Amino acid sequence: MVEELIPTAVDPVAAGRDFWTRYHELRRLQHSELRPDDPLTPDDVVEAQMKKPNPFDFHHYFEISRDGVMLSWFNGETVAPANPEYVTNKHLYWAAGYVRPDHRRRGIGTKWLKVIAELMDDHGCTLVGFHTTQDTGHAFIQRLGAEPKLTEIESRLKLSEVDWSMLERWVDEGQRRSPQTKLEIYDGPLPEAMWPEFAVQRSTLLNTIPFEGLDVGQIIITPDRIREHQERVALAGEVTHDVMTREPDGVISGMTDVNWAPYRRTLIEQQFTGVLPAARGRGIGKWIKAAMLLHVRELYPDAEWVVTGNAHSNAPMLKINRTMGFKAYRTGVEYQMTRDELGARI
């Protein structure tokens, strides 16, 4: 009986092998449904990252299991007081759940609503966000009454179809249009001496991202957060690459970064790309993205795809990506609702 199923909190550090066995079994099932084309993150990488302390965010994990089988999984997070974003983002809670396909429409998913409400109350959060790419997820979230706030497009570029001569022209044009601007490439972790200035400029650029109607508070990167991120990336064996432009006065005017991991040798993840508003209109976005792609082509001959994501409303970046050959792969939606609205559904 569903009434007998009880959500149970999970501490990854203290969890035994029996937990990890049923968790990874459900994780594989979820992966085969949601991301069947992508390599699965190895078990040891997932465990190491979940066990690693994070001073900047509270992470919550819960399971619903029966007879040694995990039927549903929930994870949520919100900022911790040590996070520099705490003042502007402490009202936000982000939640995600998954129910085994053969146990859906039995009320298991709704059991997480009370858990979310209690966690929000514990941390003083007043707004909860959900994300989905699946019809079943949209139907569930919409029944709750959450409103769509941001539409995201995941796009993929097949490297065998890239017009490399076009990218070389973009690099040449970028250098010609900004002859005093220096292009910098960094493989692996950024030098620690760069962190203070990089953190300031990255924060500035990240806050220019169009989030449509989504409340994300303020994005603040610091050297300590860069260190924590690099430690977490290292647990997965991921290698990061950064390309940026620097103006004559030393200001970083544009940046883009990608990462690669040995367990997904054929797939490169394109992360953030941004150009300062004052430096736009000079082809810097095209310059740094082209320079990055030309660079990683030499580093990773086994790579077949580059994957990236953008807001549906980010027309300038989508135009660059489409010209490069990126094609829409999947669409996701971010929803939000208030704590009071959630409470009315419990």
List the defining traits of the structure above.
Aminopeptidase, alpha+beta, 12 strands, 12-stranded mixed sheet, 346 residues, 11 helices
Report on this model:
- The chain is of the alpha+beta class and 346 residues long.
- It has two domains: 2-125, Aminopeptidase (3-Layer(aba) Sandwich); 154-333, Aminopeptidase, CATH 3.40.630.30.
- It contains eleven helices and twelve strands.
- A twelve-stranded mixed sheet has the order 1-2-3-4-5-12-6-11-10-9-8-7, with helices on both faces.
- The longest helix has 18 residues, at 17-34.
- The model has no long low-confidence stretch (mean pLDDT 97).
DSSP strand content? 25-35%
In N-to-C order, the SSE pattern is: EHHEEHEHEHEHEHHEEEHEHEH
Derived from helix and strand composition plus strand pairing, the structural class reads alpha+beta
Q: Taking strands numbered 1, 2, ... along the chain, how are they ordered across the largest sheet?
A: 1-2-3-4-5-12-6-11-10-9-8-7
Molecular shape: globular
Tell me the CATH topology of the largest domain. Aminopeptidase
N-to-C span: 19 Å
Domains counted in the coordinates: how many?
2
Task: Name the average pLDDT.
Answer: 97
Radius of gyration over C-alpha positions, nearest whole angstrom: 21 Å
Short description:
Helix content is 36%, strand content 29%.
Write the layout of secondary structure elements.
Blueprint: E1 8-9, H1 17-34, H2 43-51, E2 57-66, E3 69-79, H3 86-89, E4 92-99, H4 111-123, E5 127-132, H5 135-144, E6 147-158, H6 164-177, E7 182-187, H7 195-206, H8 223-235, E8 239-246, E9 252-260, E10 267-275, H9 284-299, E11 305-311, H10 315-324, E12 327-338, H11 339-343
Helix pairs in contact: 6-9
